[in-house]
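Internal QA ticket QA-208
Title: Verify multi-chain structure generation after dependency bump
Assignee: T.L.

Test input:
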Amino acid sequence: MTVFIAIVLAGLGTYAMRALFLVALSNKTFPPLALRLLGYVAPAVMGALVVSMLIDSTGHLSLGAPELAGLGCAAFVAARTRNHIYALVVAMAVFWSLRWIM
Amino acid sequence: MASSKGKSPVWRGMKGSIPLFIPAIPFAFVFGVVVAESGIPGLLGWSSAPIIFGGAAQITLLTLLGEGASVAAAVTAALIVGARHLLYSVTMAPRFQSQPRWFRWVGAYMLIDQVFALVSIEELDDPDEFRHFYLSAGLTFWSLWMSFTALGIAIGPVIPEGWQLAFAAPVLFISILAVSVDRWQKAAVALVAMIAMAALADLPNRLGILVAAVLAMFVGILLERFRR
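Actual output:
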């Protein structure tokens, strides 16, 4: 039940963000400085989330050489090719190889 | 695109959506693995696809719930991940001013990354043409996302845990991050957030995400001084 409540809350919140300017404030805009600061929200949260996804439920962080190399390769390939599938394939291959060697 | 001129906007919307859906396929499968590992029943996990209709937010929410985060922490993180939708909403608003009321409500539900990208590059001057194209692209993505997330949920539990496929989730997030970084300040902000999160790994309920993100955003504001 708590999971369903969380899904519904996240759904309502996501819908509200999409609808805000289409439905309610279609003739309002953000000041340029606010838009520029809003641009930092995504990298800050995504950076924190990447690392948080490597933490297990006991608070232990698994960030060894395979994880670091995999994430580094993903970032490099994605920045170069702008293709998430290439990034995923290369990163998983590097991650699996290093885990197999070590 | 001169070649597509004269073709019906419904057809153009469908045709334009399919290639853009391909990059979303790994998200659907990673989502399936995340739901399987979280121990949340498949149908319940899948219900986030029609309710939220946003891959990154769905993966964030279910990963965090599976790791034992509180509802408040998981929902907050999912909403912050989805905060870019506010930017889409602002950018798209002028083109909705001449649209009927019902379409503003329905169109908001379909304002996903790919629909935003498609509508931004297509030439759609007439409001009716715009609406037909938007609805057609949105419904195509919606049907594909519902089907592929269901497929991901079905396949997720079958994948052996030894493959460590859950690692694909941070990999996809760092590749979104790498694509979205368009100036060095953003890369620095992301790096600060990563280091802070690693230092705050012990904080309960994934509180570290909020603390690390807020800290990194302050660093971003400070770095704004180095902009010309």
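Spot checks passed. The mean pLDDT of chain A is 88.
Status: verified.
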